[in-house]
Design a protein that fits this description.
alpha+beta; 7-stranded mixed beta sheet; NUDIX_hydrolase-like_dom_sf; hydrolase; NUDIX_hydrolase_CS; Nudix_hydrolase_domain
């Protein structure tokens, strides 16, 4: 059965037009990658859990503090290349990255070494224009940007 995730995409109107908050995936696999190595803050949820509540919870876990208030807009559900489905909501608001800190996970690294190491789930986050986000996000999440632009009316 495919895994389900919920995501919360923050957006704001910046000096370069519409900007979104994206996060670089942590851990050794993503460490030296940039294009296609970023994600909307998201996480898995279980049957019976409200996707919006899960999206807010996961945002707080990955970013270090709760998302700003605001009226959420459902942007739909996309399927990523591994089969996971991601239901995304957007909220207009600002988020100060000075307090950014992500939760962590353990992984045997180097693989086969028997040594467990701790890595951040997200190692950095940035506000970027939508055009930049299209290059940085994993491909399966790019359609969410189209839904956001459709809601806002323009990416400038």
């Amino acid at each position: 059965m495919p895994k389900t995730s919920a995501a919360l995409l923050l957006f704001r109107h910046g000096t370069d037009g519409l900007e979104v908050l994206i996060a670089h995936m942590g851990g050794p696999f993503w460490a030296r990658k940039d294009a296609g190595a970023w994600s909307i803050p998201k996480g898995e949820y279980t049957d019976g859990e409200e996707p919006l509540a899960a999206a807010r919870r996961e945002f707080a876990e990955e970013m270090g503090s709760p998302p700003p208030g605001g009226e959420p807009v459902a942007l739909g559900t996309v399927r990523q290349s591994g089969g996971k489905t991601v239901t995304t909501f957007a909220v207009e608001g600002d988020f100060d990255l000075a307090g950014f800190r992500s939760n962590t996970f353990e992984l045997e690294w180097p693989r086969g070494s028997g040594r467990m190491r701790e890595f951040p789930e997200v190692d950095r986050a940035e506000w970027v224009p939508v055009a930049v986000a299209r290059e940085k996000l994993v491909k399966g999440q790019v359609p969410v940007l189209d839904a956001l632009v459709g809601h806002v009316g323009s990416d400038t």
